[in-house]
Amino acid sequence: MRISTNLFHMQSFASIEKHQNSVLAIQEKLTTGQRVNRPSDDPIATSQINALNTTMNTLDQFAKNGDYAKSMLSYEETQMDSAVEATQRVRELTIQMMNETYTPEQRQAAGAEIGELIDHVTSLMNSTNSEGELLFAGSNVSADAAFVEDTVNPTTATGLSFYAYIGSANAGAEYDERANFGARFVQIGFDSDDKLNPDDNGDPSRVRVTDQGGKVFNVPGATSLPAGVDTSLVNVMVQLKDYLDQGLQPPAEIGDDLQTGIKEMSKVLAEVGSRQNRIENQYDAGQEFRIALNERRSKIQDQDAVEGISEFTMKQNALQMAQQVFSRVQGMSLFDYLG
Q1: Residue 49 lies in a domain
Q2: In this structure, what is the dihedral angle of CA atoms 69, 75, 76, 82, given to the nearest 10 degrees?
Q3: 159 and 276 belong to one structural domain
Q4: What is the pTM of this model?
Q5: What angle do CA 236, 242, 247 make, to 5 degrees?
Q6: How far apart are CA 222 and CA 240, in angstroms?
Q7: What tens digit of pLDDT does each residue of 56-101 get?
């Protein structure tokens, strides 16, 4: 093998460049605090980091969905509390007016207050959120109203204007806790079966954010209403007002139906509370999972400072040694040894 001065220089330059690149690489890792700064640093680790980032971003979206669901349910809870309070006042007046000591004029005055309460309860039943979406129309959130007044009701001969629910209906004829197909849901956690079920029973990954007014304000088995009329709470109030406007003593069935309506709303309120608790539980579980994912990503991505400094010192010493060797080699010539 023939050795020349150029070969000495080329080998020295290559050695110095190699060690400089090594120093720069570990210097970048120490500066950023990350062992993997680009895919070429570690392709396998990069793939794992991307997967972890995707999962963590999904958890963040679930948390945002949970915040939205909580705001919706909190507003629904507020409106229902107001409806319960108004209905309790209606029932108090009913019990009072059932007393024979009240005059027709006093009952008519009470009927005027009942009329105001009917307007209040009806507005609550047709409540909308900040985006103009109905709270109690199930999935039919963009309708004009969940309950509409039927000014010409062919099913009764009383001439009263009852209300009808026109939101999305339940799956069955009877209102069932499990029949929530006509409602809106948001996903707040990872789905166990990767299937979009039409209800949230047994599926903690989704929560219902709207309810069907026909269920919320229903009075099961209402006996005070004429046949063919929606058994809704507001219709019981309409029937009550009709008695009072005529100065008549309201029947006991109206008081019983109002009490039933309050109990039904209380059940839904408890259900809304359980959904809010489920959101909190999912959020806590998501945060715990996120901490575990972040620790896993840190182990893969982050640079150990002590190990990095030690490696930096070693590579810096190697660079200095290569530079010293070059300084010795560059002054040498083969002609120095020819004589």
Answers
A1: no
A2: 160
A3: yes
A4: 0.74
A5: 130
A6: 13
A7: 999 999 999 999 999 999 999 999 999 999 999 999 999 999 999 9
